Amino acid sequence: MRSWTIALILISLLISGLVSPPVALAEETGTLTVTTTPVRGAIFVDNIFKSRSFWSGSVNSGDHIVSFGDVSGYITPFPQTVTVMTNQAISAIGVYRKVVSLSISDPNVNR
């Protein structure tokens, strides 16, 4: 019965305007910026596509996985785990490497 009395008092105070309802706490966020070079690779944050070549946005504080899409003729960068701190900015760069093929011939063959 006591909890009902307290609840009724709180409701009365809210209705009268003497007490404000609790405010939800703001999410703790930071800024993550991701670029790809030298090509326009797809950017994923926590497996969600964000953009190609460049993306910057607010994310929740904590660990996030930045990964990159395949680009024909290039080796895809490995995924990166980044730790975003509250009210801080952090960057990640995906560096694509060109696939190089070598052809070696033996000068003694086909003589």
* CATH class identity of the domain at 25-98: Mainly Beta
CATH architecture of the domain at 25-98: Sandwich
Our measurement of the CA-to-CA distance between the termini, rounded to an integer number of angstroms, reads 104 Å
What value does the average pLDDT take?
Answer: 87
Largest sheet: 4 strands, antiparallel
Low-pLDDT sequence parts: none
Shape: rod-shaped
Number of helices: 1
- Indicate the radius of gyration in whole angstroms: 27 Å
Helix content: 10-25%
Give me the secondary-structure category. mainly beta
How large a portion of the residues is in β-strands, by DSSP E?
A: 35-45%
Order of helices and strands: HEEEEEEEEE
At the fold tier of CATH, the topology name of the domain at 25-98 is: Immunoglobulin-like
- Within the largest sheet, what's the order of strands? 3-2-5-7
Q: Which assembly state applies to the chains in this document?
A: single chain
Task: Describe the protein in words.
The chain has 111 residues and is mainly β. It has a domain at 25-98: Immunoglobulin-like. Helices cover 14% and strands 43% of the residues. Strands 3-2-5-7 form a four-stranded antiparallel β-sheet, with no helix packed on it. A three-stranded mixed β-sheet has the order 4-1-8, with no helix packed on it. The N and C termini lie far apart (104 Å). The mean pLDDT is 87.
